Amino acid sequence: MLVQDHKPIYKKLRWGVLGCANIAIKSVIPAIQQSETGYVLGIASRNLEKAQETADHFQIERVYSDYQALLQDPEIDAVYIPLPNHLHYEWTIKAAQYKKHVLCEKPLSLNLKEAKEMLIASQQNRVYLAEAFMYAYHPRYTKIKEIINSGDIGEIRGIHGTFTFNNASDVNNVRFQSQMGGGALYDVGCYPIHAARFLLETEPEAVTVHAFFSPQHDHVDMMASGLLEFPNGISLTFDCGMWADRRNTLQILGTEGRIEIPSAFICRSHEDSRLLVLSKGEKQKEILLPFVNQYTLQVDQFALVILTEEPPLIPTSDSVRNMHVLEACLKSAKERLRVTL
């Protein structure tokens, strides 16, 4: 369905997956296998038994006992990196050096310096590097932009986003390891921050974030609330957390109405695809869009950029700018100050 409106596809992208993270097994590998543009040719893990088990389940042809071996396979075109945050930089650079296109989980890196170097490596090696913000590929965000641009809700006055869940009892989780890039801002706060930038199509001028750093969880930020100051007096207010009740919402407030997205970043069912409530004055209109797999849409668009030279929805340079904002947010939370960008 996706590729019918594009140039004909004469080959499929051959994917390799670095690691057997839950996001890979539950979401991205199935999405690639269901896509029109690619398939998973190989999977690597430092736990060979786990890699073999995953390969058997998904009927993946090739299994590697280490990541380097997968990168050395000349028949792998692109790699998906779902590794812990602190490994994104190292393995993206190495993959680029082996001329592999890279879909890397968010956040792209641990800081702006790393992100810039990852972009340079991809450019020098003529490969495509994309950050895995799957939510943006769902057609509801195209619809949201259409509503905003139509003026139907008037001028934008502010955006509020949330993304919280409670996994605090799993104290050994990589999300709770400071040196591995753990914390709520990098794990889920990146979503409302990215969404505001994506919808407003501009950059914040300053950020202020207040956070709860938990001694029980290696002092990572387990809850954070923030303010991003965009031009023209528009703000994003957001909260994110890994030790709070579950929510993932987005509200776009205009002078004449508002758009509310009850499940803004997760879309696992038709109910989640209900997604959009437009309120104007006293009237409410629910806009229903078909249920689609946003992970599959993401990998199909990734492949089309490579196979047909379609412009990317989210350029790599945008991911570098998002990392700039995220780094500033963490600095603000740690040092209790307003950070200008």
Overview of this protein structure:
This protein has helices at residues 22-34, 48-58, 67-71, 88-97, 112-124, 139-150, 184-200, 270-273, 294-307, 316-335, and strands at 13-18, 38-44, 62-64, 78-81, 101-104, 129-131, 156-166, 206-214, 220-229, 235-241, 243-254, 258-261, 276-280, 283-287, 339-340. With 341 residues, it is of the alpha/beta class. It has two domains: 2-133, Rossmann fold; 139-291 and 323-340, Dihydrodipicolinate Reductase, domain 2 (2-Layer Sandwich), CATH 3.30.360. Strands 14-13-12-11-7-10-9-8-15 form a nine-stranded mixed beta sheet. The chain has a six-stranded parallel beta sheet with strand order 3-2-1-4-5-6, sandwiched between helices.
Helical percent range?
25-40%
Can you summarize the main beta sheet? 9 strands, mixed
E-strand count = 15
CATH class of the largest domain: Alpha Beta
- Gross morphology: globular
CATH fold group of the largest domain? Dihydrodipicolinate Reductase, domain 2
Oligomer, anyone? single chain
Number of DSSP helical runs: 10
Quote the average pLDDT: 94
CATH superfamily descriptor of the largest domain? Dihydrodipicolinate Reductase, domain 2
User: Which H/E pattern describes the elements?
Assistant: EHEHEHEHEHEHEHEEEEEHEEHHE
What is the first-to-last residue Cα distance? 41 Å
Strand order of the largest sheet: 14-13-12-11-7-10-9-8-15
Instruction: Please compute the radius of gyration using only Cα atoms.
Output: 20 Å
Bin the strand percentage: 25-35%
What CATH architecture label of the largest domain applies? Answer: 2-Layer Sandwich
What count of structural domains? 2
In the predicted model, the low-confidence regions spanning at least 5 consecutive residues are: 1-6
Structural class: alpha/beta
InterPro entries: Gfo/Idh/MocA-like_OxRdtase_N (IPR000683), Gfo/Idh/MocA_domain (IPR050984), GFO_IDH_MocA-like_dom (IPR055170), NAD(P)-bd_dom_sf (IPR036291)
Family: Belongs to the Gfo/Idh/MocA family.
Domain GFO/IDH/MocA-like oxidoreductase: 141-260
Domain Gfo/Idh/MocA-like oxidoreductase N-terminal: 13-129
